[in-house]
Amino acid sequence: MPDQRTQSPRSAYPYDDAPDTDAAFRRIAALPGGPEKSALRQDVVCAWMPMAVRLARRFRHRGETFEDLKQVAQLGLVKAVARFDPSRGTAFPSFAIPTILGEVKRHFRDELWVVHVPRRVQELRRRVRSADHELCSSLGGRIPAAHEIAAHAGLTEAEVRLGQGALESFTARSLDSVPGHSEDSHPLTDTLGGMEPGFDRVVNREALRPLLQALPERERQILYMRFFCEMTQARIGLQLGVSQMHVSRLITRTCARLHDQVMADPRVPRRTA
């Protein structure tokens, strides 16, 4: 069996972008750190750059520009050249290709998801996408149904729908975009609902109801006359035989206590500035 270290890269590698850099790698391994070693590594990176570009081309049409894909693949190539050890007897492409592909896939996984998607859903997305492409070829271009994808990929239909939902998670549509092309189309912002203030009012009233019922009779009566009957403090004091100042103090104190009790209720929504 021939020694891998003496094999020509072109005889073991089916592509034309495999330069003979064995001697350069042996020289890099023998050199101490310094400008000469760095320059030789740079030459090797440039020699293998076409391979990185070819690998980046595999990932076109997946929501990322080709220029960015090339940069990521080239970064993987730089890492592969820096880490490669020719003494292990492995051809450089066998080491570099997984390194470059791993860098590109990591870029997709960590940088391009507009919506955060769990790792399990990312895997379902990959399997659904692959099964869909394979079935489209075998079905003459017809779009496969969910149950056909499930049978082909060994998934349940629920898993297929979950994976399909993640297919467009790399990109997001602007809220200012106008779906459709008719004159009646409106921006997506026009379809968004707003906060309904009436909901908070209902919650607050229901939270206050038992607290009002628990008040002493006199305080409850004063609040009823002031806020439900819209009587003035002077008129309330005249009817109860107390001063207007005393009525004011009772209202202020009672309302403050009710406010504190309502805010301590975890069911009441909080407004943040």
Automatic annotation (TrEMBL):
Domain of life, per lineage: Bacteria
Region (Disordered): 175-195
Gene3D superfamilies: 1.20.120.1810, Winged helix-like DNA-binding domain superfamily/Winged helix DNA-binding domain (1.10.10.10)
Coiled coil: none
InterPro entries: RNA_pol_sigma-70_dom, RNA_pol_sigma-B/F/G, RNA_pol_sigma70, RNA_pol_sigma70_r2, RNA_pol_sigma70_r4, RNA_pol_sigma_r2, RNA_pol_sigma_r3/r4-like, WH-like_DNA-bd_sf
Keywords: DNA-binding, Sigma factor, Transcription, Transcription regulation
Domain RNA polymerase sigma-70 region: 48-112, 211-258
Residue spans crossing the bilayer: none
NCBIfam families xref list: SigBFG (TIGR02980), sigma70-ECF (TIGR02937)
Protein name: RNA polymerase sigma factor SigF
